[in-house]
């Protein structure tokens, strides 16, 4: 059995952050603009335009920097964050599994490779951390038994 | 309303969640949990480690640095389901393994939660007489909803984590 699972939920926190970053940049530009440009009747039009641009560019920024796609099966997994490099591992690269709570209160499944480790951000991926830890343990121990 | 009886595993998961996400944070920042955690010859069903210093955001971090000691702590849990002979000798062995782990990892305090559905009268007195101040032992009989704890501050305190 080699069923492939894909998880790529929208992270509302990071999406809001991206929106606010773009909106704030535009707000600064508007504040620095000459008063005649931002006077009535343009004020609300500019605000509406800012919101539309913030939504469009915020979405692009979110997809570029924060959006995560996690793909796994019983052989291994791939975690891709934004447009950056993807982390690709096999379950048999790891020897131990734990559940780790970050200082922001998010839970991650921590996979140990001797003294080093790799964190799978279960909360951010909207996976049930306790159930996913159990599944990861099953995968890791299955490969450990094969060795 | 009918109450559904939880299995020992479900009880342990409930306490594990509670320690990591809710109630446990008042005593320590329990931030990493292991399952099937082996200490030499004994395998504990759950081991959660933490520190008495809360990490959190700026204010709670400053508050914690000023007021809390910087102790590594751990919480071990086991159910008696897979244990053949659950007696004083077994508990003594578990405590010895925990003490050796604490020594190796410079851990100051530990808790041991044992979940059982077996008859506990024979070991009740033994648990109550454990006076080790660095380990709090709690025996939870999920069938009779009886909670026994060791005679130490940590034992008395740990009893509060158990909500049956």
Walkthrough of the structure:
The complex is a heterodimer of chains A (147) and B (164). In chain A, helix 1 packs across helix 3. In chain A, strands 1-2-3-4 form a four-stranded antiparallel β-sheet. In chain A, strands 5-6-7 form a three-stranded antiparallel β-sheet, with helices on one face. The two termini of chain A are 19 Å apart. Chain A is elongated and about 75 Å long. Chain A is an alpha+beta fold and 147 residues long. Chain A is built from four helices and seven strands. In chain A, 46% of the residues lie in helices and 25% in strands. Chain B is an alpha/beta fold and 164 residues long. Chain B has one domain. Chain B is built from five helices and six strands, in the order H-E-E-H-E-H-E-H-E-E-H. Chain B has a six-stranded mixed β-sheet with strand order 1-2-3-4-5-6, sandwiched between helices. The longest helix of chain B is centred in the middle third of the chain and has 17 residues, at 88-104. Chain B is globular, with a radius of gyration of 16 Å. The model of chain B has no long low-confidence stretch (mean pLDDT 85). The chains are: A alpha+beta (147), B alpha/beta (164). Chains A and B meet through strand 5 and helix 4 of A and helix 1 and strand 1 of B. Strand 5 (96-101) of chain A pairs antiparallel with strand 1 (29-39) of chain B, so a sheet runs across the interface.
């Amino acid at each position: 059995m080699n069923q492939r699972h894909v998880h790529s939920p929208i992270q509302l926190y990071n999406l809001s952050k991206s929106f606010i970053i773009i909106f704030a940049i535009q707000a600064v530009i508007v504040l620095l603009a000459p008063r005649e440009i931002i006077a009535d009747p343009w004020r609300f039009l500019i605000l509406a335009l800012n919101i539309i641009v913030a939504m469009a560019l915020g979405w692009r920024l979110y997809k570029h920097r924060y959006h995560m796609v996690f793909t796994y099966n019983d052989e291994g997994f791939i975690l891709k964050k934004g447009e950056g490099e993807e982390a690709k591992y096999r379950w048999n690269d790891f020897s131990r599994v734990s559940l780790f709570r970050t200082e922001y209160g998010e839970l991650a499944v921590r996979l140990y490779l001797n003294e080093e480790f790799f964190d799978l951000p279960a909360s951010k991926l909207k996976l049930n951390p306790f159930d996913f830890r159990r599944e990861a343990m099953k995968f890791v121990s299955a490969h450990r038994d094969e060795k | 309303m009918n109450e559904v009886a939880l299995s020992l595993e479900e009880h342990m998961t409930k306490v594990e969640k509670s320690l990591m996400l809710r109630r446990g944070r008042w005593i320590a920042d329990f931030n990493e949990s292991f399952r099937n955690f082996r200490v030499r010859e004994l395998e504990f069903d759950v081991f959660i480690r933490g520190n008495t210093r809360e990490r959190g955001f700026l204010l709670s971090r400053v508050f914690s640095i000023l007021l809390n000691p910087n102790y590594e702590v751990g919480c071990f849990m086991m159910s008696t389901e897979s244990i053949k002979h659950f007696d004083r000798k077994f508990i003594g062995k578990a405590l010895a393994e925990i003490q050796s782990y604490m020594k190796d990892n410079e851990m100051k305090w530990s808790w041991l939660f044992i979940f059982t559905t077996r008859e506990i009268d024979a070991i009740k007195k033994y648990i109550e007489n454990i006076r080790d101040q660095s380990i709090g032992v709690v025996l939870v009989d999920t069938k009779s909803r009886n909670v026994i704890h060791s005679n130490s501050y940590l034992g008395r305190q740990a009893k509060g984590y158990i909500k049956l």
